[in-house]
Amino acid sequence: MKLKDHKIYSLVLLALFAMAGCKKTLQLDPTTSYSSSNFWSETPQATAALYGAYNLLQGAMAPESVLYGEGRADNVVINPLALSSQTLNLLTNNLNSSLPITSWNAYYQVVNQSNLILQNTLTMKQKGLYLGKDADYKSVRGQAYALRAFCYFYMTRLWGKLSLVTEPLTDANQQVNIARSDTAAVYARIQADLDSAAIAPVPATYTTASATRAQFTMGALNALYTDFYMWRHQYQNALASSQKILTNSTYSLTALYSASSTIDYNVTPALIDNTAYAQMFTKGFSSESIFEIDYNFAERATRSFLITVYGDLGFQPFFKASGYLSSKFTSTDLRSKINFDTNSGIVKFFEKSGFDRSTQDDKNIIIYRLADIILLRAEALNKTGDVAGAMTLVNQIRARAGATVYTAASYAGLSTDQIEDLILDERDRELCFEGKRWFDLVRTGKAIKVMQPINGLSQTANYLWPISLTEIRLNPLLDQNSYYQ
User: Fold this and answer.
1) Three-class SS state of 402
2) Does the keyword Endoplasmic reticulum apply (predicted)?
3) Which one of 57, 176, 326, 417 is at 20 to 30 Å from 332 when CA atoms are compared?
């Protein structure tokens, strides 16, 4: 592995934390040089380096995260007017190591930045630079541990075995040859980093509502814990971590359906933009958001590029909504009007009227929100025998959307696997296009069942992605995943 990208210089991003205003979470002013002799000499520099890590995460997740989470699944189909070899390879399950999306380099940049922070803040504390600033010290380090855990968790779900790097590189041209560790070691590293972030601890909230959603908090950490435990089928642990989120007053479901509303969204579909649920995606930082990646073109020239992947077909994005997904929505389910238009254009993240591509292509990418955790918890409850508790949570999400709730009689006698299918269908309706679907199918072992009729997926070894040929050439100790050898 070679961390070769010029973004290594984000180490010295000198950031000002904005005290007010939507989408002003991190204001970053990059410099063009780095010298270890004069950096790490005062605590604001460590905070600036932390903001640099979030800046690198912006680059890693835009728009690759939605391609990883949706491009191989059943929610999307190719827009024939925007055909590209990469998106075609994803949807037809013809991955190869030459595709740009198979590179993990951007995530290792965040890992390296986290390693720099962890090493140097410890030295700074030993020098007395954090005297009287213990809360700042714990906050910076806790977030660095959480960011590293997040990146390793994200990468291992895609590539399986990983090169575990816990020491920083200070030279962008430094060559490091490290073999991949098996997933047991990767999971142990993730668990240790999560626990270190919790012990630090990361803060419960920050001084602004937007920062509380765009930086790692205890809520975001518990969401990551829940996701991690569900991936590993550790359901009791997932129930414990998810319960901490459900009892956290920082988070509440946004409003969408109201039985007393006289608005007919079939007549005036643009009015749905006024709902809190719709604005969760178009404006960001909702009460439901637990952790999201903050983009703002006007202030920092950062873009999520979601419009290149999704959007009204007039913008010619990569994908449009699949008929298979559209068929899952009933006529009363308002989420269908949020998610896509009558031409199968995916408009979930964009205003239904008045959207300006030239100035607003900076919609945030939501990593975790309350509905996601509620439905993961429903899965865990089902797996541990509490079907009624699981379906109560599913009905909470359905009622919010205006969909008919399940009665006890409607699911009486269903097996654990059949209940899981109901929950997964609800996750699909609720979280479609948010980069969750592929991981849900793999996590629950249903990827072949769902995808084989669509693209021929037939082997569990094919769940993993190939490792970029570029990465293998740079590091001869890397071995290619077996399916692609």
Assistant:
1) coil
2) no
3) 417
pLDDT digits (tens, 9 = 90+) for 378-403: 999 999 999 999 999 999 999 999 99
Q: Which alpha helices (H) appear in 363-457, and where do they start and end?
A: 370-383, 387-401, 408-411, 416-431, 437-443, 447-455
Task: Tell me, rounded to whole angstroms, the distance of Cα 334 from its chain centroid.
Answer: 24
- pLDDT per position as a tens digit, 306-345: 999 999 888 899 999 999 999 999 999 999 999 999 999 9
Place 31 in a pLDDT band, splitting at 50, 70 and 90.
Answer: very low
Phi and psi for 291 in degrees, rounded to 5? -155, 125
Report the DSSP beta bridge partners of residue 368. 291
Q: Is 265 exposed, middle or buried (0-12, 13-18, 19+ CB in 10 A)?
A: middle
Residue 28 φ/ψ, nearest 5 degrees: -115, 130
Which tokens in the block code for residue 86?
């990469």
Assign a CATH topology to domain 6-232+464-484: 1.25.40
Mean residue pLDDT across the chain: 91
- Does this model's pTM top 0.90? yes
Q: Indicate left, alpha or beta for 103 from its phi (over 0: left) and psi (-120 to 50: alpha).
A: beta
CA dihedral angle for residue 7, residue 10, residue 16, residue 20, rounded to 10 degrees: 40
